[in-house]
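Treating backbone geometry as a discrete language has practical consequences that deserve illustration. Part of our work consisted of pairing the sequence of a single chain with a tokenised description of its backbone. We regard such an encoding as a compact summary of how the chain folds. The amino acid sequence and the backbone structure tokens for this protein are reproduced below.
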Amino acid sequence: MSIDEFVKPMRDELVQAGFVEVRTPEAARELISQNTGTLLIVINSMCGCAGALARPAVLEALQQAAAQPDQLATVFAGYDRKATDAVRSFIPYPPSSPSIALFRGNEVVWFLPREGIEGYSQEDVSQQIIQALNTFCQKNGE
């Protein structure tokens, strides 16, 4: 099995839920620098806490939150390295994967590093994301 085949299901989990996949540094810089609303970016990875906690918690939070980001995006750390580095250049925190960043415009207003994911329950992680969405994003219908 090639690395592409191995990573594909991990990519598809978010893409099938409506996340735009960022594969190049140019796409990453354009996405963030031209963002005028709220943008939730998941820095995805192959580790167990990404598959068991981060991705499922994000998907659960998006279903349960009263407020939603204007855009959803994902980049795959360790695989699309240049794109990941470009995304991280906008995040004023140490590199972390998996991690989740919420932008308003091109500024990070909330960030959840691996340390806030690993060792917690999916429900705990989901609740942190829901709280951030409800704080920084517009409620449905507003």
Observations:
- The longest strand covers residues 38-44.
